[in-house]
C-alpha cells in the first residue's frame, strides 16, 4: 500500500543526533505532559528547536515545528505517513474506521465517494439551512437574555443540529443536548485513556468506563436508527447518507455494510460539529475580550447586511468577519494535534527518521511560531487582510485544516457555517466577559476547549443589540 513512498537509503541519513529531552527526562516529564501536552510541546520547541526527538522505550517520536518538515509529511511524501498512531486508534474506538481514521485504499475510495457532497455548489445549497437553524437558536435566546450564557454549549448544540440537517437530513433539535453530552463524554474518555498508562481497560466496569460505554450506546443507537429509517424510505433525500447507502464498489460490486456506514456517519457528526463549535466559542471569547474588533465586525455586518438575516451571498463581502475567523483558527486551532507514523525511514529537515517513528505536528505551535508570525500571541484579525503588506507566512505555517491529500474534507463547509453563525449572532448580540469570570485556560482534548476552574465551557454576558446600542 505504501510502496510508492520516496525514502532515502539508510547510508544517506545524517548521523547528527536530533535534540530532545532524552528518555529519563521524558519519563520525569510525564505528569507535566498529562497535565498540559500543549504547553509541553511549546516548551520543547523553544528549548530544542523545530525538530525534537523523543524516545520512550523502543518507540521514536519526532515533534516537527517547521513548515518544510510539515509540508514533507502532509504533502510531498504523504504516502509514507500513516494514521497508525495512538491518537487515531483511540478515535477509532468511538468513530470506527471512518474517513478520519482509515488509511490506504479504503480511505481513498470513501474520500472519493464523499467528496462530491462537499462541492461548493452543495455547500451553497446548505447555507440556507445553516442560516435558518441559527435564526431558530437566536429566537430561543430572546426569553433568556440579557444575561449569562454558556456560549460553548450553545455552539455545540447548534453545529450538531446543522450537521444532522445538512449531511443527513435529520433534525436532532430535541436530542442535541443528550448527543453533545455523549460525544464529549466519549471524547474526554479517549483522551484520558491515551494519556493515562494506568487506565483500566474498558471492559472493567469502573464508573468512568461505564459512562463511556453508555455514551457509545447512545451514539450507536442514534446512528443505527438513522440508517434503518433511511433504508426503509422509498424516496430518499439526496444527501450524504443516501450517497453512502447507494455506493457500489466498482470492482467488487458490493455495497458498504452497516458498520462502514455507521463509522462514516459518526465520524462526520463528530468531526463536523465539535471543531466548528470550538472555533466559534474561541471567536466569541476573543471578540468579548477585544471590544474594538467586535465593534468593527458589527459595523461591517451593518454595512453589508443591514438588518435582514445574513445569507450566503453576503459572505464574499464580509471580509472582516472572515479575518476574525482565520485569526481565531490561528490562535486556537480546534484540531491542535496531528500525528502520523513513518512507514519507512525518511529525513525531515535533515534529521534521520527511522521506519516506525511517530511524527507529531501541532497547528497550535506552528501557528504561534515567532519566526513566522509577528506578535504571535496577539489577536490581530487584520493580519489576514487581503491588502496586508506588512507580513506573510509560509503556507505550511498556517494549517488549521491540515494539508495535503488528508486535508479536512469539511474545510469550506466549516468556514461558511462559522461565518454565517458569526455574522448572524453578532448582528443581534454584543458579548462581554462574565463579570466574575476566572482565568480561562485551554484544555487540549480532542479539540481545544475552554476551561474555567477545571470546568469545560465558557460563560459570557450576552446583550441584545438594542440594549447595547451604546457600543
Ligand atoms: C473549523 C472547523 C474544522 C477544523 C478546524 C477541522 C480540522 C481538521 C483537520 C486539521 C483535519 C486533518 C487531520 C489530519 O490530517 O490528521 C481534518 C480532517 C477531517 N475533517 Fe475537519 N475540521 C473542521 C470542520 C469539519 C467539518 C465541518 C467536517 C464535516 C462536515 C469535517 C470532517 C473532517 C473529516 C471527515 C476529516 C478526515 C479527512 C480525510 O482524512 O480524508 N471537518 N479536519
Structural class: alpha+beta
The helix fraction, in percent, is 40-55%
Q: CATH fold name, please?
A: Cytochrome p450
Q: Helical stretch count?
A: 17
Morphology: globular
Widest beta sheet: strand line-up: 1-2-8-5-3
Query: Which series of helices and strands comes N to C?
Result: HHHEEHEHHHEHHHHHHHHEEEEHHEEEEE
Mean pLDDT: 91
How would a textbook summarize the main sheet? 5 strands, mixed
CATH superfamily: Cytochrome P450
CATH arch. level architecture: Orthogonal Bundle
**What small molecules are bound in this structure?**
protoporphyrin IX containing FE
Tell me the strand percentage band: 5-15%
Unreliable spans are 1-12, 467-471
List how many beta strands DSSP finds.
13
Q: Overview of this structure, please?
A:
By secondary structure, this protein is α+β, with helices and mostly antiparallel strands. The protein has a single domain, classed as Cytochrome p450, CATH 1.10.630.10. 48% of the residues lie in helices and 12% in strands. It has 17 helices and 13 strands. The strands form 4 sheets. Strands 1-2-8-5-3 form a 5-stranded mixed β-sheet. A 3-stranded antiparallel β-sheet has the order 4-13-9. It has a 3-stranded antiparallel β-sheet with strand order 10-11-12, with helices on one face. A hairpin with a 2-residue loop joins strand 6 and strand 7. Helix 13 runs parallel beside helix 17 (411-428). Residues 1-12 and 467-471 have low confidence and may be disordered. Protoporphyrin IX containing FE (HEM) is lined by residues 99-100, 111, 267-268, 271-272, 275-276, 279, 334-335, 338, 400-402, 406, 408-410, 413-414.
Amino acid at each position: 500500500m505504501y510502496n510508492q513512498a520516496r525514502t532515502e537509503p539508510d547510508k544517506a541519513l545524517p548521523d547528527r543526533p536530533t535534540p530532545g529531552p532524552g528518555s529519563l527526562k521524558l519519563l520525569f516529564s510525564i505528569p507535566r505532559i498529562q497535565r498540559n501536552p500543549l504547553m509541553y510541546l511549546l516548551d520543547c520547541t523553544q528549548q530544542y528547536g523545530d525538530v525534537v526527538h523523543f524516545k520512550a522505550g523502543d518507540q521514536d517520536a519526532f515533534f516537527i515545528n517547521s513548515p518544510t518538515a510539515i509540508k514533507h509529511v502532509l504533502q510531498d511524501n504523504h504516502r509514507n505517513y500513516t494514521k497508525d498512531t495512538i491518537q487515531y486508534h483511540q478515535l477509532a474506538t468511538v468513530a470506527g474506521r471512518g474517513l478520519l481514521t482509515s488509511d490506504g485504499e479504503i480511505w481513498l475510495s470513501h474520500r472519493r465517494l464523499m467528496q462530491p457532497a462537499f462541492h461548493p455548489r452543495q455547500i451553497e445549497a446548505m447555507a440556507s439551512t445553516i442560516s435558518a437553524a441559527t435564526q431558530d437558536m437566536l429566537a430561543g435566546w430572546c426569553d433568556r437574555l440579557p444575561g449569562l450564557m454558556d456560549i460553548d454549549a450553545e455552539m455545540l448544540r447548534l453545529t450538531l443540529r446543522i450537521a444532522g440537517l445538512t449531511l443527513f437530513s435529520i433534525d436532532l433539535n430535541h436530542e442535541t443536548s443528550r448527543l453533545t453530552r455523549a460525544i464529549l463524554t466519549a471524547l474526554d474518555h479517549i483522551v484520558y485513556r491515551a494519556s493515562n498508562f494506568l487506565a483500566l481497560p474498558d471492559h472493567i466496569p469502573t464508573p468512568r468506563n461505564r459512562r463511556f460505554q453508555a455514551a457509545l450506546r447512545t451514539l450507536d443507537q442514534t446512528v443505527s436508527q438513522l440508517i434503518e429509517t433511511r433504508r426503509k424510505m422509498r424516496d430518499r433525500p439526496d444527501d450524504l447518507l443516501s450517497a453512502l447507502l447507494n455506493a457500489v464498489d466498482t470492482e467488487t460490486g458490493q455495497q458498504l455494510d452497516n458498520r462502514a456506514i455507521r463509522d462514516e456517519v459518526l465520524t462526520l457528526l463528530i468531526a463536523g460539529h465539535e471543531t466548528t463549535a470550538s472555533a466559534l466559542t474561541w471567536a466569541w471569547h476573543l471578540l468579548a475580550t477585544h471590544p474594538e474588533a467586535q465593534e468593527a465586525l458589527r459595523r461591517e455586518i451593518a454595512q453589508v447586511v443591514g438588518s435582514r438575516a445574513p445569507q450566503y451571498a453576503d459572505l464574499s463581502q464580509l471580509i472582516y468577519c472572515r479575518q476574525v475567523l482565520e485569526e481565531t483558527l490561528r490562535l486556537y486551532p480546534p484540531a491542535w494535534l496531528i500525528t502520523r507514523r513513518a512507514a519507512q525511514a525518511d529525513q525531515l529537515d535533515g534529521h534521520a527518521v527511522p521506519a516506525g517513528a511517530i511524527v507529531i505536528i501541532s497547528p497550535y505551535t506552528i501557528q504561534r511560531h515567532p519566526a513566522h508570525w509577528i506578535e504571535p500571541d496577539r489577536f490581530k484579525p487584520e493580519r489576514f487582510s487581503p491588502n496586508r503588506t506588512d507580513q506573510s507566512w509560509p503556507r505550511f505555517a498556517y494549517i488549521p485544516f491540515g494539508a495535503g491529500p488528508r486535508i479536512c474534507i469539511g474545510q469550506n463547509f466549516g468556514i461558511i457555517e462559522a461565518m454565517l453563525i458569526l455574522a448572524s449572532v453578532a448582528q443581534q448580540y454584543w458579548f462581554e466577559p462574565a463579570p466574575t469570570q476566572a482565568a480561562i485556560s485551554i484544555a487540549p482534548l480532542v479539540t481545544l476547549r475552554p476551561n474555567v476552574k477545571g470546568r469545560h465551557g465558557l460563560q459570557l454576558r450576552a446583550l441584545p443589540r438594542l440594549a447595547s446600542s451604546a457600543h
